Amino acid sequence: MNEPQELKSTWKSVRTRTITAGGVKFAYRELGADNPGPPLVCLIHLAAVLDNWDPRVIDGFAARHRVIAFDNRGVGASSGSPSASMEEMAQDAIAFVEAMGFDQVDLFGFSMGGMIAQEIVLMKPALVRKMIITGTGPAGGEGISKVARVTYLDMLRGWLSFQDPKQFLFFTRTPSGIRAGKEFLLRIQERTEDRDKKITVAALQAQLKALRRWGNKAPADLSKVHHPVLVANGDSDRMVPSRNTRDLAERLPNSELIIYPDSGHGAVFQFHGDFVRRALAFLAR
């Protein structure tokens, strides 16, 4: 594909590439390479691969920013053994960013990705300019160690009702939440070619172990994180209870908080238009 065509790609059509870092071949996709400023690196949620990103959010960001999303080690099309701690995932992310040749990046972390982002900024603060962390919480946050229980319960609910578990995990059971879930699930199926490999059971179990460790970990000193941070969630998050989002905003000294009404873990996908607009304004300031 030549460069002009590549620049016109959208999330549902952009090709998957690979880069090797630390002995791991990372699968990634990139949009908006001609846009100025630090690239926005996206950190994915539990059990997710590249195809789980909402095209409206990624395309919205790519209209103004260079956007890169990648599969964690041992997940999707990336090689290696899956990591079982947020610290290991953060180290892998740093290795990926450095292999891409970036001196400084912005981070967008959703759910587990928001936890990885916190570890990255504590490990290597100079690498990060700004962070957007959504549907997430701090180390030791209330209810985070129980994510596995909620996940397995909603996987069973999905199986019994012939629905995708994300309909229960990400969205409320109100009419607007159910409608938003159905629309989101349709959007992430828009890509029909060159789809990613699904996560394996072993990788899912490793990530659930990492979440339990994170939930039982001693709280970090977030007062030393002076980077601008946009924190967002819905008001009814079942996976990472919404009080964790408010806690993060209070503990991060340079934060902005968005809480969307009648929404859960996937609020930024339910309100993708408003979220992208506000996130772009945050990155531009």
From TrEMBL:
<protein>
    <submittedName>
        <fullName>Alpha/beta hydrolase</fullName>
    </submittedName>
</protein>
<dbReference type="InterPro" id="IPR000073">
    <property type="entry name" value="AB_hydrolase_1"/>
</dbReference>
<keyword id="KW-0378">Hydrolase</keyword>
<dbReference type="InterPro" id="IPR050471">
    <property type="entry name" value="AB_hydrolase"/>
</dbReference>
<dbReference type="GO" id="GO:0016787">
    <property type="term" value="F:hydrolase activity"/>
</dbReference>
<dbReference type="InterPro" id="IPR029058">
    <property type="entry name" value="AB_hydrolase_fold"/>
</dbReference>
<dbReference type="Pfam" id="PF00561">
    <property type="entry name" value="Abhydrolase_1"/>
</dbReference>
<feature type="domain" description="AB hydrolase-1">
    <location>
        <begin position="39"/>
        <end position="269"/>
    </location>
</feature>
